[in-house]
Amino acid sequence: VRGFLRTAPVLLLTATPMQNSLAELWGLVQYVEPTGTLLGDIATFRKVFCGEDDRTLVPGQEHELQRRLAMVLQRTLRRQAQEFLDRPFMQRRCRLYEYAMSDDERSLYDDVTEYLLQPSLCAFAGRQRRLLLIGFHRRMASSLSALAASLDNVAARLRRLQAGLAPGDTGLDALRDLEDEDEDEDDDTAGSSQDSEATIADPNAVVSELALVESFVARARSLPHDAKARSFLDAINVILELGRDGSGSGKAVVFTESITTQEYLRKLLMNNGLSDEDVTLFRGVNDHPRAQQAYARWKEEEGGRFNAGVRPSRDVAVRLALVYEFRTRSKVLICTEAGAKGLNLQFCETVINYDLPWNPQRIEQRIGRCHRYSQQRDVTVVNFIARDNEAHRLTFEILSQKLDLFGKVLDASDMVLHEPRTDAPEMFVSALSVEFESDLRNIYSRSRTLDEVTREIAALRDKVSVRRDAYEREYQRTSKIIESRFDENVRRVFRHLREDLPRGLADLDRDIAALVGGYLDTAQAPHHHFSAAGRDIFMIAPDAALPAEAGDCRQFATGDARGLTDAQALNLLHPLVQGAIAQARTWPGGSVALELPKSAPPDLSALKGKAGVMCVALVDYAGFEPVQRLVAAAVVDGAPIDPSIAARLIRLTASESQTTEGEVDPQLIDDAVDEAVFVDQREVEKGEQQHFEKAIGQLERFVEDKILVCRRERNSIAEKLVSAYERRNEVVGSSARERVESEIIRLSTRDEELQQRITDLESREDEVYKKWRNEYHELRYRTPSVNRLFQATFRIASGPTAPVPTAGAPITADPKAADPRATSRPAPKVRMK
Amino acid sequence: MLKLLHTADWHLGRRFKSFPEDAQKKLSRARMDVVSRILDVARRNAVHAVLCVGDIFDDPDPSPDFWDGLACKFQEHAGPHAPLFLVPGNHDPLTPESVWAPGHPFRKRLPEWVHVVDRDDFSYPLSPNAVLYARPCRSKAGENDLAMALPEREPGDNRLRIGCVHGCTFDIEGYQTSFPIRRDAGVQRGLDYLAIGDTHPFRDVTESLPVPTVYPGAPEPTAFDEAGAGRVALVALFRRGSRPRVETEPVAFWKWIDVRCGDINELRRLLTHQSLDRHVVRLRLEMTVSLSEESEVERIVRDLQGTDATHGRVGILLLDKTKLRLHSGSRGAFPDDLPPVLKDTIARLDQLIAEAGGEAEKETAMRALAHLYRLLQSQNTASVQGAALVARRGI
Structure pTM? Predict the structure, then answer.
């Protein structure tokens, strides 16, 4: 990987540069610092920087590590970027709907839970037991409908067992209702061996278990819509109302883990006033008729935006179509977990977790669909909690209060239930997520009663709390290692983007316009060139000969490509610009007349009316940052002029002239070019020297790390030797004495080796050091190559002889009415840059 | 155009006895390493000659480590190489016993592109249109102007003429007056550039004259008062009559800085300096501090200096604590809730300081107080109480 990375610059982006261990940081640095000398090899790094374990830093090394990391790592906090963003990051808040289960619901929930917690169940025997049970618990928390469907599958499984058949895959079928890729972890346990275990179940037990499950199914089916569904409808109504009064988008994305629940919610919404079009479903496989309809509509309305080469695959197109459908037509998008990744739904500001995954990272991903850059409203996350289900309440408490997943938590009546400690929950979530999910799974698979589950989750809450506190302490300490850029530095970067960059681009556009204008003039391509809305616009006659790659387009404009509708944007890669550059490169030189502007500075004005020879050379500087630069040189009145004046001379507008000036001594031109290169080189050296100093400094520390490690070991050996010598004086018996003697010899030998190693390192006898040092010297001190591009004789006119419009100068005629042929200039011009 | 690299005052073999042994090694190594960099700069700039104008060695007969080391640097460096001229200076004059003597093994180890100026009438044609004149120092001190001893321009000689001597232009008050050089010697001798060496910062002493006379400075500084050292000069000569361009290029590994801290805040500010790892810092603590500040001073110094287990922030630290003083007395540095035995000890030490008959007695009491304070900071009450009891017995 290092070999590959060395061939290209690498920018590594991460929101969580360090989670638990300094070794992770070491790992990240290897990607962006392929010499491996910034932090050394992992063994040396650990010895130099890590204390007792990878989580702690050797006291006193904070600054050293911070300084080294600052060479390759820059951290910008969200807070620092906020004021410069066109669309600032929005807040997130949680609205909690608490509902009370009816007595029938509650008793069904308790009974089924109790059934699932029994240690030996015929339906869940074998190695699938844990997986199936956990899936069941999660579906119970989703909806009655999902529960009933799953119980049906369990009943079918038991019936097969009763008939003496293998249970088939009905158990796993039940799981497929959950679009949850993490469940695959146990999939390899599915197969005949488990089934065969199940088939030897006690027939009487199967009969009674079947009767129990069938009674559950009947009770579930007999219940009307559950209390959670009613709360859901309340939430949807609030969202639709916000849309109607203009204070919200009127849209919500609903997440559920269960396909059955997804379908159930769709019907629920349709039965409560929403139309078929108001609801879009999104799942792993989108082959339902509504998806087909959405795809057809999207293809018709949006498909044309894609060129042949970039058309998305059918699967991707359907995903795009469903998002498009939601954005343009629907009010509610109901997603399974398949929608938790990869969708950009920032036009919607409400996320409803109809049920909650046990993996907090998943929840974060769900919220991240809407709570992302370019969201323009605060994002509301809606959650539901059964008031009398202590286990669920505790789980939610951990997610909301210990992991701060949902931001500020309000109940349905706006009472603040929790103020977050952090506005960057992803940090804790990513650190604690896996452990939390695994703990929850263990609780549900090993507990035998509901009380036990509740007790265990309460203990988990305390454990997460302790873990979070420890994490925060560690984070506070270690975050100092990764130096945040000072506010002023961040501001400077943003100011640069906001102010200097547009100026630089404007200069580039001006040069491009001048280049293209000169090219069209030289090619005698009839065209009209004018300025409008800060752009240089070229309207070229339809039959003008342009590079074939430019196609049929005859209207071109400089500036930002965004917002251009009836012209192509001219940039350095545009075929017309490329053609102009290629053509300019072929110019062999000749004679030109230079036009001195009226506002020319005195040193240029002093050359008025004079003639000479100019030369432009391309200097190729190898180095840490290879760069090619054009340098200009000129000889006037038989003497080279200052290179800084020559550099401005060649930017004057020039027209080809037939006048040939007298001969100039070639040696003088050589001298002028040499002087220009000499001066230019000094400019380049400054940046190169900084790179070189940094690289060499890094290499020196690389060796000093090794010396430090050797010295530490020598100190430790010295202590051991003292102890060994003391023991030698005290031991009784020849064998014991021999053991101590041999230990002393071993320690002394090692000490001598270390001493020699230190001496070698102090003389920089280290292969890695020498390799990189040679390479850096080679990079820094490679001789630049100089290629002369052209030489031209010139005479500096005392002022514009005719009104020659320069690039960017406005032309008063209405450009649209103008005939390019009528306004094209007859005299060919060469603009030299 | 003729391009030259002009350097001087390498002082190979100089000992830095005021520094710890480790630091001495680092400084010596840097002094030798800079030679490679100078040759690299010469190659990158495709110079026509490298002029090393005196005091290459710190002594005319340096230890073999240094002359052999230098010969190795020359031999190992990858070319192409322009001719390089070594001019004996006042530190390493040309004497029969010196390293420059024709029979010295150093001379035999030099590659053919390295030339030693071992004659008073030394000249070397750098090109058909340019010639170098040089003259060595033959003693550690002399009153003759070696520049004025260079040959004058002959009528009709239109070549670029470069002069090369070691000596002093008398423009720094109180500076040595050995081997004086007239500031207009370049003009007087019809030279186009006069390359000199002696003082260690870079200086062009003839900015108003048409012939530049330049000290390139030591490429690796040798002391703290050499602002502007650490460079070589690149000289571009174009044609007779036009003043050559003289630019400098940094080559030093170490930057030497002298820091005086008059109070604890100045010392704290030193910690905000981001990169001192390539600096040789002489830190002079000239302040009076309280007991609590003294602990902080020690911590900061440890941070700067490093320990066996940690890198110091400063590359090489030379610490001068001779003017670091403690405020007398405890001055409320101790907390109020100490055990009575400690309070009593502190009070008695304060009294001893106030009523001390002599400075030594006062100093002892202050050190005892400081020791007690440090123990308390380590929060080991048992040992603190033990120390207090010991202190009381002492009292």
Answer: 0.74
